[in-house]
Amino acid sequence: MKRLLILLFAFFLLMPLNADAQRKRNQKDGKIDFRMNSNSIYNLVRSLTKPYVGAHLEYNGESITIWKTEKLNFTEKNIESGKVIESKADNLIVKTYDGAIKIVEHEFKELPKVGEYL
């Protein structure tokens, strides 16, 4: 019995605390920063799409959820990240660090105009 208690004590002593505990996700984890590269933004949106909470961005003081994006090849260099390049129908094209992202599914009530920043 004494040996069993020693083994149990040693097992719990050597076992790392909170071995499988992880930090809870919060709103900041899903914020889109257009200074990131296109692939990172695409993967962020893809990883948080439905049924999860969705990636988001700030526009006019509101949090706008983004559900789907597409990566685009965009080689023009003298445009700042986050600038809206094109705004048509229900889609937006926004400059990223290394290219551009087309925002396909979103919750904008009114689309930003070309030249605005997100």
Summarize this, please?
This protein has two helices and five strands; from the N terminus they run H-H-E-E-E-E-E.
Question: Your description of this structure?
Answer:
The protein has one domain (29-118): Formyl transferase, C-terminal domain (Methionyl-tRNA Fmet Formyltransferase, Chain A, domain 2, Roll), CATH 3.10.25. Helix content is 19%, strand content 28%. It has 2 helices and 5 strands. It has helices spanning 2-14, 38-47; strands spanning 55-59, 62-72, 84-88, 91-95, 100-106. It has a 5-stranded antiparallel sheet with strand order 1-2-5-4-3. Strand 1 and strand 2 (62-72) form a beta hairpin. The model has no long low-confidence stretch (mean pLDDT 86).
Q: How is the largest sheet built, in terms of strand order?
A: 1-2-5-4-3
Broad structural category? alpha+beta
Secondary-structure arrangement, i.e. CATH architecture? Roll
The major pleated sheet works out as: 5 strands, antiparallel
- What's the CATH C level? Alpha Beta
The SSE order reads HHEEEEE
Q: What is the CATH superfamily label?
A: Formyl transferase, C-terminal domain
Total count of strands: 5
Strand content: 25-35%
**CATH topology grouping:** Methionyl-tRNA Fmet Formyltransferase, Chain A, domain 2
Oligomerization state of this entry?
single chain
Low-confidence stretches: none
Number of domains: 1
Q: Overall 3D geometry?
A: elongated
What's the overall average pLDDT, rounded?
86
Distance from first to last alpha carbon: 66 Å
Cα-atom radius of gyration = 22 Å
Helix content: 10-25%
